[in-house]
Each structure stands twice: as structure tokens, then as C-alpha cells.
């Protein structure tokens, strides 16, 4: 399912790729010595920062919604940045042809 994100009044067809992004972070962090590993926030942590329920957040990251507010994605990005990851919208959204 393609969903649309309103980014500064421009509607763009995207898929949320946060699950794959988190998986890549876990793989990367697992290769580091234990003392150098960063905490990767849980989906519950991200949902709290985004101001939505875990269930609502799950719908977004699993692409089970038609439209999302950018603040939900920003909440996930903010959680990751607070843990030291240089995450941006392009890391968690895949732009698609409509």
C-alpha cells in the first residue's frame, strides 16, 4: 500500500521503511564492541516521542494507513537522533511512483 505524507504542503507517495532501517542499525551496532554500542529505541519509545499509541505507530511503520502526519515519522527520527544516530526522513521513507 502506498501512503501519502504531507511534507510542507507537498503530498508525496511513500512507503515507510523504518523496520528495515532499524534492522540495519541493529546489525551495525552488533558488530561493535559492547562498550561502543548505542541504544536503539524501541517502537514503544518512538511512539511515545511521536505522541501516538503503540498500535497507531505500528500501523504507520507497517504501511497500514493511507496518510500519516509527518510528526509521527519525526518522533521516530527524534528518538533515534537522541541515541546518537544521524537519521533523517530519507532513511525511513521510500519515495514511490504513484
- Could you state the order of secondary-structure elements as H and E? EEHHHEHHE
CATH architecture annotation name:
Orthogonal Bundle
> How many domains comprise the coordinates?
1
CATH topology: 434 Repressor (Amino-terminal Domain)
How would you explain this protein's 3D organization?
This protein is of the alpha+beta class and 98 residues long. The chain has one domain: 434 Repressor (Amino-terminal Domain) (Orthogonal Bundle), CATH 1.10.260. The chain contains five helices and four strands; from the N terminus they run ββαααβααβ. The chain has helices at residues 18-30, 43-50, 54-61, 70-82, 89-92, and strands spanning 3-7, 10-16, 67-68, 93-95. The protein has a four-stranded mixed β-sheet with strand order 3-1-2-4. A hairpin with a 2-residue loop joins β1 and β2 (10-16). α2 (43-50) packs across α3 (54-61) and α2 packs across α4 (70-82). It is globular and about 40 Å long. It starts with a strand and ends with a strand. The relative contact order is 0.25.
